[in-house]
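Re: the 328-residue chain
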Amino acid sequence: MSPAYTTGSGGRGARVADRLRRVDRVGDGILFGLCSLAALLGVGTLLLVGYQVVDGAMPAISKFGLGFLVHTTWQPNFNVYGAGSVLFGTVVSSFVALAIGAPIAVAIGLFLSLLAPKGVRGAISPLVEMLAAIPSVILGFWGIIVFAPFVQSDVEPRLHDSLGFIPLFGPPQSTGAGVFTASLILVIMIIPIIASISRDLFLAVPGDVQDGASALGATRWEVVRGVVLPSTASGILAASLLGLGRALGEAIAVTQVIGSGSAIHSSLFETGDTMAARIANQFPGYLNAMHEASLYYLGAILLVIGLVSNLLAQWIGRRFDYRRRIAK
C-alpha cells in the first residue's frame, strides 16, 4: 500500500470521526434541551396551578385568615365558611385508609416478589394492577349499592360489639354511608399503587445478600425482616405517601359513600365530608363570589397538604439512607 493512499485513507477516517463527534455533540445538546424543557414544564405547571388556586382563594384568605382551618360552619347562604369539618374528614379517612391499606399492600408485594411461584405471580400481578384501572365512579357506585349495605349489616355491628368501648367504633348507622366506608373504598384504590411499587422494590434487593443471610441460618421471615424491609424502607415510605396523595385527592368515590355530613364526630361510622368531595359537589353551582373563593381555599389547603407530605417523604428517605450509610 502506497504512503499517499494511507495518508488519504487516514484523512478520510479523521474527517468521519470528527463529523461523528459533531453529530454526537448536537445529539447531546438536543437531549439535554428536551430533558430540561420537560423538567421546566413540570415545575411551570405546578407553579401555574398553585398561582391559580391561591389567586382564586385570596378573597376568602383575606376575609377568614387561618381561622378558616378550625371553623366548622359552612353556610353559603350566609357567607359563613369554615374548613374544620371537611379537613377533619379528609385527614381521618385518608389516614385510616393508609393504616389499613399500606400493610396489606406491602404484604401483597412481598408475596408476589419473594413467596409466590412464578406461575401464580404472573397471574396475580396483573389482577392487582387492574384495580388501579377501575374508574373511581364505578368504585363509588359499587360502594353505595353493594359495599355500604354489607358494611352496615356485617362489619360495623361486629366492630361495635368488640370495640364499642372505643369512641371510634360507635353505634352503626342505618345506611352504612360514613367515614369508615369511605376509608375502605380508599383502601381498594391505594392498594395497587403501593403493592406495585413495593413489589418492584423487593425484586431489586440483591439476591446474593438474601442468599448470604439464608446461608448464615436466617429463616425466610428473618431475611425479610432483617434484609429486605430495611433496605427498601425509604421506598416503601415513598410509595405509602404516594398512596396517601391518591386518598387525599379522591373526590367522586368518596362523595358517593361518605354521606356528606357537615359535623365532626368521634365515631368512624358517622357521616362526614372531605375537601375534595366538597369541591366536586359545590364548585359547579357555587352561589356567590365568596363561596367560589372558599372552595378555592379548600383546594389551596389540599395542595399544601400534598406538597408537605411529599417533601416530608423525601426528607425521611434521605435521613434513612444517610443513617444506613453511616451504619455501614
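The first helix runs from residue 3 to 64.
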